[in-house]
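quick q for whoever's on today - can somebody do inverse folding on this one?? i tried earlier but teh output was garbage lol. tokens:
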């Protein structure tokens, strides 16, 4: 497999990072000004509008036969992939003569929907303006945004899709004490989770991405559950013959803004595109199953007093008075010896002698 040079990526990343995008709350007004600064090889158009009539854009680059569709923020409060997409677009612009960019543009035609759910983004919610989870609307297609995505899929007919999400801070890498900073999934096509040719091809691309990430963040990569969800986007697109790679951006120590995580998301996305550009034989897939499962082993904060009174807290994020706020909310009390806190406070009980 052709794996990117990590030292090169570390060197160039500070220069290609889109610095105007920062933090968890990324909205359409944040990305709209960036369209006019794209590389000349990137075109853009309005694909349609959301339920509240916000514009949904589609970008296009490359001229190759291998078609790839990428979308981000189908859940409005999951923005790490959006930041990584614009980091990738900056890489294309600033390194247009590099062999990596030239290979991708020559071999692939890429369409990107950088923000599928702008209404959910402004409200910082998972759902759209009509309270529909777009990632569970692939069959009914009740939402305008779901119809737009499906229309883009049917018209473009991509061989590969990248479905960019964020996952909660509760997930760790099974068998370790590390958070799942990036997790992957090759979605199932039906309940038996049969290993079809398409799933094997999807797994092959994930194997390449994992090989790079294991150099950057060893033992911080997990594998999301492949339980079949009949109404989920990835499962249905995979079933329709469009190999769909799910990237879940998670937690990295001391990175609640997910600024380090976006870098690893960019690494994974670039590696995936580069791998597809150069690959003819997608039959190597078995190492996908060597990626450890995600495990629900984390809380944001654990106060350890004694085993009967340990307290676990999670941050809940909301927009209040047009400000992004995070509040710790208690989730569990008792023996938490099976859990890890991203922050752990240990309180020592003092022995008081009675006179």
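ok took a stab at it. sequence:
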């Amino acid at each position: 497999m052709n794996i990117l040079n990590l030292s090169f990526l570390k060197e160039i990343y500070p220069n290609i990072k889109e610095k105007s995008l920062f933090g968890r709350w990324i909205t359409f007004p944040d990305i709209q000004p960036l369209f006019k600064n794209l590389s000349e090889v990137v075109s853009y158009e309005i694909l349609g509008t959301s339920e509240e009539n916000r514009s949904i854009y589609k970008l296009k680059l490359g001229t190759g036969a291998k078609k790839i569709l990428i979308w981000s923020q189908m859940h409005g409060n999951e923005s790490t992939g959006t930041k990584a997409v614009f980091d990738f677009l900056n890489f294309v612009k600033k390194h247009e003569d590099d062999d990596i960019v030239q290979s991708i543009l020559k071999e692939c035609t890429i369409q990107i929907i950088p923000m599928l759910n702008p209404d959910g983004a402004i409200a910082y919610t998972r759902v759209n303006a009509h309270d529909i989870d777009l990632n569970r609307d692939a069959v009914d297609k009740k939402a305008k945004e779901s119809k737009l995505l499906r229309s883009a899929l049917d018209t473009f007919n991509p061989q590969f899709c990248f479905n960019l999400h964020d996952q909660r801070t509760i997930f760790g890498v099974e068998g370790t004490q590390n958070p799942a900073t990036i997790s992957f999934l090759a979605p199932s096509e039906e309940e038996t989770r049969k290993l079809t040719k398409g799933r094997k091809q999807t797994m092959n691309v994930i194997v390449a991405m994992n090989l790079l990430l294991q150099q950057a963040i060893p033992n911080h990569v997990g594998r999301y559950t492949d339980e079949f969800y009949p109404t989920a986007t990835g499962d249905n697109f995979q079933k329709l013959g469009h190999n769909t790679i799910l990237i879940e951006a998670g937690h990295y120590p001391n990175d609640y803004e997910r600024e380090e995580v976006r870098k690893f998301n960019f690494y994974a996305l670039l590696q995936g595109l580069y791998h597809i550009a150069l690959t003819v034989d997608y039959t190597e897939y078995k190492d996908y199953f060597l990626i450890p499962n995600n495990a629900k082993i984390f809380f944001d904060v654990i106060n350890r007093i004694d085993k009967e009174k340990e307290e676990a807290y999670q941050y809940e994020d909301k927009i209040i008075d047009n400000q992004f706020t995070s509040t710790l909310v208690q989730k569990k009390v008792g023996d938490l010896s099976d859990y890890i806190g991203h922050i752990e406070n240990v309180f020592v009980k003092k022995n008081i002698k009675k006179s």
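fwiw The CA atoms of residues 300 and 342 lie 5 Å apart. also The chain has two domains: 6-296, 298-346. so keep that in mind when u check it
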